[in-house]
């Protein structure tokens, strides 16, 4: 399952840390629509298998459980126990300050081909795209880096290797199913603001009241 592995959040909800510290439990971010149809087990949890890369470059399979979702931003947070494995979380950048034309790279598993990297540029900023719950996701990043089935939930990174967004959607040519080169990612600044609430409460602040 594509996702952005981040170290366990260690901070309060009123402060956004500039980076994540190493931890034995990873919080992995993916799209809500990727995990929405997972069944619930007898303990009331949704579980799935995720693939991580350890310090040796080896792919390791781990069980993850879904701890929080936000359909309005098409985000979900998974907890993965990585004790005994040396797994380095990905470096988190910032989407504020992005410029149209700068290089970016999408990583995912399109059509089952694992760890595929595609290149492109930031084509537009502040786009509005539909969310799984029918709401509108505002502020999306538009890119021409190829995003296809299997890329959803994977990272969009900049030329320094920092995550600037979470790949979420693509427009396809009508009747062909082929990508039109118009693809979208949720800005990482939005993700960083949202995930503490998902980890602590299972949902966002606005959904609790």
Strand order of the largest sheet: 6-7-8-11-10-9
Gap from first CA to last CA? 31 Å
Assigned CATH superfamily of the largest domain: Trypsin-like serine proteases
Mean pLDDT: 80
Please identify the top-level CATH class of the largest domain: Mainly Beta
Number of helices: 2
Number of domains: 2
Order of helices and strands: EEHEEEEEEEEEH
Looking at the structure, the CATH topology of the largest domain is: Thrombin, subunit H
> What is the level-2 CATH architecture name of the largest domain?
Beta Barrel
The major β-sheet equals: 6 strands, antiparallel, barrel
What value does the Rg take, in angstroms?
16 Å
| Molecular shape | globular
How much of the sequence is in beta strands?
Answer: 35-45%
The quaternary state of the protein chains shown equals single chain
User: Which structural class do you get from the secondary structure elements?
Assistant: mainly beta
Unreliable residue stretches: 7-23
- Share of helix among residues? under 10%
Number of DSSP strand runs: 11
InterPro entries: Chloro_Bact_Ser_Proteases (IPR051201), Peptidase_S1_PA (IPR009003), Peptidase_S1_PA_chymotrypsin (IPR043504), Peptidase_S1C (IPR001940)
Pfam family, one: Trypsin_2
Family: Belongs to the peptidase S1C family.
Keywords: Hydrolase, Protease
């Amino acid at each position: 399952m594509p996702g952005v592995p981040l170290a366990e959040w260690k901070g309060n909800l009123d402060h956004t840390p500039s980076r994540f510290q190493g931890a034995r439990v990873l919080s992995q971010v993916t799209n809500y629509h990727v995990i929405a149809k997972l069944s619930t087990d007898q303990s009331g949890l949704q579980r799935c298998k995720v693939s991580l890369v350890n310090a040796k470059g080896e792919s390791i399979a781990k069980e993850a459980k879904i701890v929080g979702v936000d359909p309005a931003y098409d985000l979900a947070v998974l907890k993965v126990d990585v004790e005994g494995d040396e797994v380095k979380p990905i470096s988190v950048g910032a989407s504020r300050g992005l410029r149209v034309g700068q290089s970016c790279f999408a990583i995912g598993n399109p059509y089952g081909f694992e760890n595929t990297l595609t290149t492109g540029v930031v084509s537009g900023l502040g786009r509005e795209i539909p969310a799984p719950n029918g709401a509108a996701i505002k502020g999306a990043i538009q890119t021409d880096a190829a995003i296809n089935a299997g890329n959803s939930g994977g990272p969009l990174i900049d030329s320094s290797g920092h995550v600037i967004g979470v790949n979420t959607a693509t427009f396809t040519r009508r009747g062909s199913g082929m990508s039109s080169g118009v693809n979208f990612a949720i800005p990482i600044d939005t993700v960083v603001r949202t995930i503490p609430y998902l980890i602590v409460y299972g949902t966002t602040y606005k959904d609790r009241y």
